[in-house]
User: What shape does this take?
Amino acid sequence: MMTKKQFKGLKIVGFVILGAACVTALGFGVMLLWNWLVPELFHGPVITFWQALGLFILCKLLFGGFMKDNDKKNSWKRRKWERMQAKMEHMSPEEKEKLKSHFDRCWGRKWQREEEPQQPPVERQPE
Assistant: This one.
């Protein structure tokens, strides 16, 4: 029977192997695509696996980065939504209805956030 410590060590080894396999696959993928397209189209050089891996890392650093930007994007969306809600709070009911009908005409119901459905209150019968 495995102890928690052994299981944790096995998980770490598995992640290391999986990470190495992914890096290898990415390197070979970039190398194969480069060697298939660039020499034919642009009369460029054929590259090795290590050059392809370096090219991939360089492109990620220059164009994409290695960290997910979801927090930045979500915070931007959240701020935009909060500004819109603040504007809506200061509008009269007629103005709100006019704006909502405009959004409905332009985008349909996609623009509205899903809200919890309102359930009618349950009436209890006297015993």
